[in-house]
Amino acid sequence: MGTSMSTMLDVFASTYSESLQDSLYRMAMAALAAVPDISDITMARPNKHYLLINLKPFKLDNKKQVFLPTDEPHGQIECTVSR
Questions:
Q1: pLDDT range class, residue 1, cuts 50, 70, 90
Q2: pLDDT in tens, 4-13
Q3: Does residue 28 contact residue 38 with C-beta atoms inside 8 Å?
Q4: According to DSSP H, which parts of the chain are helical?
């Protein structure tokens, strides 16, 4: 796996995301910092919504582990970050 991909995965896996846009931006900035030869980076991700499922009727706690995808409007978020 390339340096920029490893760097982006590390950022994705190790930081709290305020939003999808926040994640994409931080991942792109990390890739630019890790690989000086990259002049710009473009990424796209689906923007889907997932709601925490209430497991109390089953006498279980849901500690942010089980989510349900919704049919709410969703789309594609794209960004380009350059030096």
A1: low
A2: 899 999 999 9
A3: no
A4: 3-14, 20-34
Six token digits for residue 31: 């890739």
Grade residue 48 by pLDDT with cuts at 50, 70 and 90: confident
The 10 Å Cβ neighbour count of residue 27 is: 25
Each domain of the chain, given as residue ranges in start order, spans 3-82
Residue pair 81/29 in contact (Cβ under 8 Å)? The answer is: yes
Residue 55 confidence (pLDDT) above 80: yes
Which amino acid, 34?
Answer: A
According to the model, what pLDDT value does residue 17 have? Answer: 86
Q: Please list the residues that pair with 46 across neighbouring strands.
A: 76
Question: CB-based contacts of 69: which residues, under 8 Å, 6+ apart?
Answer: 48, 49, 50
Torsion 54-59-65-68 (CA) sign: negative
